[in-house]
From TrEMBL, chain A:
Name the UniProt record assigns to this protein: Putative ECF RNA polymerase sigma factor SigI
GO biological process: DNA-templated transcription initiation
Domain of life per record: Bacteria
Limits of the RNA polymerase sigma factor 70 region 4 type domain: 116-167
From TrEMBL, chain B:
Family: Belongs to the YciI family.
Record protein name field: YCII-related domain protein
YCII-related domain boundaries: 1-115
Length: 415, 116
């Protein structure tokens, strides 16, 4: 059996985003809302071990946090508080009476939607947007976010404090943007979720647990967004993309080419494919939908050789046309090597080698090594593998490359 | 809440604008200002003389240091400002985006400090 304190924290992480969103709406500020939530957690740790976990923990936390906020405001009021706190206090008490009459909270989804738009406001820099979103909507602690992004805890704490101070000082509103501003603002929210997803899946150098948190969080935020904005194609496209990658998580101790496809989660694959289709039917096709469509083709394929590479090349070509990037070109080159042979792929990589923006991007060297091996250029392949191993971002990539290199040394390469 | 819209533009590029276009540009600024006044958002606004006329002042250890030129030498220079009344940052950003200067230059939006 899991200890009660772990269960309590798990419940809090699940519920905190919604509770916090409601509190921030009423209180008009982050810090007091966070303090009240923290007070409620302390109460739960005290009471739940003996009273048991309430039937509706979300409602319990909301009610308790709200009372704690009232307590804090009352104490502040006796010290001669500002007009704003008194107004918040009145609102809180009215809200509590309303809730006592009916426990339904139709506003909760809207509250979280407002909160995510505030956290991802373009007036905040991207790093701050990501940190604030994970902290407030994801319920991740400052230490957890710091660990996930490899920055010292005080740096992350400072980042969160600055972001909240700017929200307050510049009066960044707590609203769902107007229809006119919505497209641009949704893009900013999607970019944050995509970044969380990418950090979780591709740069897995950190301790596994933390990275898994990021993957789970990207999926959760993606689902929340799709629930709140179900008619936006790119919202569904991003959720499809995250879901399809998530479906492979049990097999992720190998690179895609070598994964045991029987370990993939077929329910999630079906869900991801359905989402991709729905997104594409709404249109217009954006970058997340194109990436989801590529992931769907991999997910449907029984093996690497039986993958519809022709279609994947077409999708990468379209992606490159809309969002030119050396990383997209790299992936396109690898796909081309499957339809037109390794030499054709290598020719495309050659053109990319002069792109300085690719810098030391390790997957470039790993892809080049594989193509050289398949083209039978063994000496060049050995050198390329050595270079790729030196920059490998994680153990899975390193093991794979080392194994390929060992095969070449034994003279069994060139498949 | 009040926000200061600081209008940065490249003076050298602006000086190149042919005479016949100036009238048109001036009309755009006038109608932008009128929209702002009609919406009740306008508090104050001015265009500034070029930075070649600027003088910077610092007081260090009681000593007045006066230098020729603007505070910072950059590609774009502060050329004017509007002080607007807006409900929140989104409202101020909307005015900034409508400003004719936003198309070629940069509008910096700064909330005005409130002392209570």
């Amino acid at each position: 059996m899991i200890p009660v304190s772990v269960a309590v924290e798990r419940v809090f992480r699940r519920e905190s985003g919604a509770v916090l969103a409601g509190l921030i709406r009423i209180l008009g500020e982050f810090d007091l809302a966070e303090d009240a939530l923290h007070d409620a957690l302390a109460s739960a740790l005290e009471r739940w071990p003996s009273d048991g976990i309430p039937e509706n923990p979300g409602a319990w936390i909301t009610t308790t946090a709200r009372r704690k906020a009232i307590d804090r405001l009352r104490r502040a009021a006796t010290r001669g508080a500002k007009q704003a706190s008194v107004a918040a206090l009145i609102e809180l008490e009215a809200d509590e009476r309303r809730d006592a009459a009916s426990l339904d909270q139709p506003d909760i989804a809207d509250d979280r939607l407002r909160l995510i738009f505030t956290c991802c406001h373009p007036a905040l820099n991207r790093e701050a947007q990501v940190a604030l979103t994970l902290h407030t909507l994801g319920g991740l602690s400052t230490a957890e976010i710091a660990a996930a992004f490899f920055v010292p805890v005080p740096t992350m704490a400072q980042r969160l404090v600055r972001a909240k101070a700017k929200i307050r000082a510049a009066k960044i509103p707590y609203v769902v943007p107007s229809a006119q501003a919505l497209p641009e603002r949704v893009d900013s929210v999607l970019a944050v979720v995509y970044l969380v997803f990418n950090e979780g899946y591709y740069c897995a150098t950190g301790p596994d647990g933390v990275r898994r948190d990021l993957c789970d969080e990207a999926l959760r935020l993606g689902r929340l967004l799709a629930q709140l904005l179900p008619e936006r194609a790119e919202v569904l496209g991003l959720l499809a993309l995250v879901t399809l990658h998530h479906s492979r998580r049990a097999a992720r101790d190998h690179v895609l080419d070598e994964q045991d496809r029987g370990l993939w989660n077929h329910a999630e694959i079906a869900e991801g494919i359905a989402l991709t289709k729905r997104a594409l039917s709404i249109g217009p096709a954006g970058s997340y939908q194109l990436q989801a469509a590529i992931a769907a083709l991999h997910a449907e394929a029984p093996s690497v050789d039986a993958t519809d590479w022709r279609q994947i090349v077409a999708l990468y070509t379209e992606l490159a046309r809309r969002h030119p990037s050396p990383i997209v070109e790299l992936n396109r080159a690898v796909a081309v090597s499957r339809t037109h042979g390794p030499e054709a792929g290598l020719a495309l990589l050659e053109a990319l080698a002069h792109d300085s923006s690719l810098g030391d991007y390790q997957p470039f060297y790993a892809a080049r090594a594989d193509l050289l091996r398949r083209a039978g250029q063994i000496d060049a392949a050995v050198a390329a593998y050595q270079q790729a191993i030196a920059g490998a971002p994680n153990q899975v990539a390193r093991d794979y490359l080392a194994r390929r290199l060992a095969e070449l040394d034994r003279g069994s390469g060139g498949r | 809440m009040q926000y200061l819209l600081l209008i940065y533009a490249n003076e050298a590029a602006e000086a190149q604008v042919p005479q016949e276009q100036r009238q048109e540009v001036f009309g755009e600024w006038m109608s932008y200002t009128n929209d702002m006044k009609a919406a009740g958002a306008y508090v104050a606004g001015d265009a500034l003389q070029p930075v070649s006329t600027a003088t910077s002042v610092r007081l260090r250890d009681g000593e007045r240091m006066i230098t020729d030129g603007p505070f910072a030498e950059t590609k774009e220079q502060l050329g004017g400002y509007y002080l607007v009344e807006a409900a929140d940052l989104d409202g101020a950003l909307e005015w900034a985006a409508k400003c004719p200067g936003a198309r070629t230059g940069t509008i910096e939006v700064r909330p005005v400090m409130v002392f209570s």
